[in-house]
Amino acid sequence: MKEVISVKNVNKTYQAKNGEVVALDGIDFTVRQGEFIAIIGPSGCGKSTLLSIIAGLEEKNSGEIKINGEIGYMLQKDSLLEWRTIYHNVMLGLEIRKAKTKENIEYVENLLRKYHLYEFKDKYPAQLSGGMRQRVALIRTLAIRPNILLLDEAFSALDYQTRILVTKDVYQILKNENIT
Ligand code: ADP
Ligand code: MG
Q1: Pocket of ligand 1, candidates 48, 52, 77, 152: which has the most ligand atoms within 8 Å of its Cβ, to mutate?
Q2: Which atom of ligand 1 is nearest to the CA of 47?
Q3: Between these two residues, 173 and 142, which has the higher pLDDT value?
Q4: What is the DSSP letter of 157?
């Protein structure tokens, strides 16, 4: 299957006050369309750095990265805008890209329906549970139809039981929408 992420010999060193920190040292891997990959390691080993570089938010020092498609990126904090309703939160990406076409709006509304959030569309984030908020954040990310989704410990702030439920939902959503 087609390669959607290719990372070759990527290096990243941070300049900190007390010297240099080597965050990434010769990282190599490829990910193919539809694969589900987990990066596991202790705190501080460079996981977030790697994802930020793949997402293009952080510069690498050397190496090569090729991305085939559009990336969605989700962090531990759901970063929902508290003053906007659920509906206006999930439409944010389309709004920023000036892509609120009838078709795109319908796609997002269908995601809300499919994942049981449509009836909450006029509520505010504070009125939702942590698990629901994360699903809203996921739909907001999916609204721009990424074919690649980067999740940086996106569910670690949830309690254990909610996390199990949300993780199952998310796995199903990624499979349904054919996301890598
Ligand atoms: P992880 O996500 O695996 O916990 P990080 O990628 O956040 O690890 O961090 C990797 C290493 O880089 C750590 O030692 C961290 O302290 C360091 N680091 C991360 N960001 C910065 C930064 N902006 N400036 C300096 N050092 C950083
Ligand atoms: Mg991290």
Answers
A1: 48
A2: 3
A3: 142
A4: T
